[in-house]
Amino acid sequence: MVLSFLSNSTSMQRTYIKDLGSKIGSETLICGWVSVRRDQGKMVFFDIRDGSGSVQCIVLPDSQAILVAKEISTESAVSIEGIVNKRPEKNIQAEKANGDLELQIVKIEVLNMAQTLPFELESELNLDTLLDHRPLTLRNERSRNIFRLQATIAEAYRNSLQKQGFVEFQAPAIVGGDAEGGAAAFKVNYYYDQTAYLATSPQFYKEIMVNAFERSFTFAKIFRAEKHATPRHLSELTQMDFEMGFIKDHRDVMKILHDVIVDVVKEVAERHADILKYFSAEIPQAPEEFPTFTLAEAQEIISKEFNRTIEDTSDMSPEDERQICEWAKKKYGSDFVFITDYPVEKRAFYTYQNRSFDLIFRGLEINSGSQRIHDYNEMIEKMKSRGLDPEKFSYYLQAHKYGFPPHGGSSTGLERITMKMLNLENIREATAFPRDMNRIDTRLSE
Amino acid sequence: MVLSFLSNSTSMQRTYIKDLGSKIGSETLICGWVSVRRDQGKMVFFDIRDGSGSVQCIVLPDSQAILVAKEISTESAVSIEGIVNKRPEKNIQAEKANGDLELQIVKIEVLNMAQTLPFELESELNLDTLLDHRPLTLRNERSRNIFRLQATIAEAYRNSLQKQGFVEFQAPAIVGGDAEGGAAAFKVNYYYDQTAYLATSPQFYKEIMVNAFERSFTFAKIFRAEKHATPRHLSELTQMDFEMGFIKDHRDVMKILHDVIVDVVKEVAERHADILKYFSAEIPQAPEEFPTFTLAEAQEIISKEFNRTIEDTSDMSPEDERQICEWAKKKYGSDFVFITDYPVEKRAFYTYQNRSFDLIFRGLEINSGSQRIHDYNEMIEKMKSRGLDPEKFSYYLQAHKYGFPPHGGSSTGLERITMKMLNLENIREATAFPRDMNRIDTRLSE
Q1: pTM of the model
Q2: Which of A381, A398, A417 has its CA nearest to residue A205?
Q3: Structural domains in chain A?
Q4: Model confidence at B134, in pLDDT bands (50, 70, 90)?
Q5: Looking at the predicted structure, is the pLDDT value of residue A3 above 80?
Q6: Closest chain A residue to B32 measured between Cα atoms?
Q7: Which residue of A174, A251, A402, B173 shows the fewest CB atoms closer than 10 Å?
Q8: Contact B194 A114 (CB under 8 A)
């Protein structure tokens, strides 16, 4: 068996699999992984995939490559030379990329032979198996689809903000104290045995950036030490945060967010119809205006439409979120619903009275936002009323001291929007390397 | 004095300051901060800036706004109505944006009055003052220029990778162990009193992603607990990391990196000629090929050209890096130099023998890369030879078990490339919220 290194073996230029259609009749070099090997005795068939696509290959009985072909294991990395042939009419799979051609293999080199897989890569896997073997399972079609789509969401979100004049900045992950004054924060052993924390939000920093750029955004890692073990909570998250100055009220923020979401949905629909189909997910309906209700209105609708008594009128329960979305989808043809006017005591201390909102997508809150308090004295009062010591926030309060304009912003969870876009049941599936109470890559021993 | 809220005061649509040129003769509403106020007794002049630009405004003696104008402090947030006038020919400043017009103020509303500034915002500030007052000093022209340019670097870097087929993913910040097996890592108190660490590199994760997408990248926060207090080290950094499969050797990685750098320089030059000029910085020279030397060659050149004995031949010293760049700039007209073939024992354990490189930009290493070991058995041997326990790397090693192709990648420090692009003397100036031994926002007490 030839087990040589790529550079020594050939001088032919590699062709990406997606480009094979332009090489009909030519001898071509491809590289990739063995997705499937079908040994039919005299002949061997392969599905080979690279970063760009997949193609069927055939090794004929008289080929020099037949002996190697019979030895290669699934998922091995290979380099293949062959002739690109049109398939016979009856074998054409018109709906598939490269469905009209196949590569007749002349030579195979194994770049790295895979050991026997612990399970069928494309089989249905339970969540722990999926995550225990992430370095392997990220290769399966389902995972590749999830994270390719996630990359597009991130890119489109950023592009939309940039188009709307937002300037990116880098928010810190290590902070001196817990910004939100509520969320559980992980402690970090900093220099000189001092305790630092992992940021629970880039909130203060993005507000500060308003005074530099007026409109600013950051993609920030945030960390929550809460002991949640639900299908929608993680201990490390990617938040897409923006903040803007000189707003009239929170509705200016909602308008920007709406436009970003519409741009994201458009981009996903254009690029990933195949991925949505794979998950039997519909293109999200994102109309020109998202239905918007106050918390009280929403709960009144739910109560009436679903004939149910609302227990907690100070916040939306997960059931409330699902039902308002179900109803709004039918009534307004929207997968997105804005809920406004949460009681201010339920929101972070910097929230401006009566100017908060959440965006709910297919029954799950994916974004939270508000206008913030910009007046220095009002902020001091607010901190005191919440039992916070303004002295501890003196760094942040510099923003308020020197002409902080009325401003607001919001934060979308990248994992949550990915999850709902594909109707995944657990947010861990939408996270390449999820961290939670029980896992950092491998399961934690208790 | 009118101290009303924006929404109550007017129904006029706001115009961004950059668009005032199209409003000559019209009554217009702008919002922004007071950069400068010049009280000339009967008249008051302002420079007002918003996120888009700056404009000179004038309050005439008979204006209703004159009393308010005389009260407003520098950096206050204001909303202004006025008439856009062409300036008299003699007052035109052709080289300045809006240098041909001024806004004759009819009405001013103070949205938030700034307290007296602790120092002149545009004065030269020492580093500690700059950082102690970051929420204020981020507003000055110098800081805004630095971070606007940094946003462009990040955007252009990402766009170039996406154009070249790289798929973005989110690397985790919390890790179970120290990936590099060398760098000092911060400890995190995780659940159940277990110790986790802050990532010193997204290395393992980006390698794993090669098996999913072949080409992948991430912008990752990394954390170094080393006790460095130099002008080029931070404890929290933003790294622009990419990794690619099916390479011949490290030169494939260098080729991609070269193209990314060229794209970044081009974008910076096109968008930010004014910012480069502000810092008296030239557009970096990034020729079609970057001069490339082995470590031994580079040190021989330095020794000869600068008539100096090299003490340490196992690595480039900061002086070596400066001198090879100085020489290469003269000789090859390049601000970028590749150094290859560092002794493998000086590099991380996953480095493939003789296939490492650094990219030096204007005398500072901004990027480090290599081909990695992809063969399972070779990797096990390498770990053992370094005294590392392969058992502890079992998660990562799944990638090697199942057909890991030859691959490599590199990592560019966003703060370092920003710093050298503008010839800044300290990396903290190129970091919005720097963390180091002595500072998390405010100075740490020892």
Answers
A1: 0.96
A2: A398
A3: 6-112 (2.40.50.140), 127-443 (3.30.930.10)
A4: very high
A5: no
A6: A246
A7: A251
A8: no
